[in-house]
Amino acid sequence: MIGIFLLIVVVGIVVGLDYRNYKNGSRSHFFGTLDSYTRKQTLHLYDLDLKVTAVKVTPYDVTDFVAKTQTCINKAIGQDSFGFNLNKDLCETNFKPESGSASEFAQNYKKIEVDFSYNNISNQPINFDTRNYDLISNTQKYNYFRECNYQWSETLIKGSPQTSCVREDVSKEYSGPFNLEIKLYGKTKQIVIEQ
To answer: What is the pLDDT of residues 110-156, one digit of tens each?
Structure first.
């Protein structure tokens, strides 16, 4: 009888500690991993570990943004078979669809950049690339050909963490919330981003 009681106590302690790991955002044997993490926690999805390292909010400098857009348009050359100047159109997509000019866009929008590092903890490669993550918000976002300055690997091999980021344009009136959404092998988890 005492043996059964001790077994129940030990099992209870093991399960309780495992549940505490789960609630703290760590991997657990019985409960798996959380679906939603805070910015301070490391997201765990299968053998992928991912952590937000920085969130940058930058208002556009109107004069600088207009000058760069105009320089891009001035350098645009050539037309397609329909007479459209594709290079010029590419420059102008920086301030579409809502604003009619680069000046209006720079006055109304700010840039949000979320940097993160990610790591494979297993010995098997993980297919993880730019299509696996997105920045989710309750307002419309725009990102036209403005890439982050990081590289990503389509197949992630175990080793040193790699870095990447998501960059979006949002209304200057919008102050959150944002979630960094991660998808892998049909499963989705998120990190809640606070500005």
So the answer is: 989 999 999 999 999 998 888 899 999 988 888 765 667 777 777 88
Separation of alpha carbons 184 and 88, rounded Å: 37
Domains of the chain: 33-193 (2.60.40.1240)
Cα gap 158→57, rounded to integer Å: 32
Contact 61, 98 (CB under 8 A): no
Give the predicted TM-score (pTM) of the model.
0.78
Q: Do 174 and 142 form a contact (C-beta atoms < 8 A)? A: no
**Which pLDDT tens digit goes with each residue over 166-195?**
988 899 999 878 999 999 999 999 999 976
Tokens, residue 186: 């049909």
Q: For residues 193 and 179, is the Cβ–Cβ distance under 8 A?
A: yes
Say if CB 77 and CB 144 are below 8 A apart: no
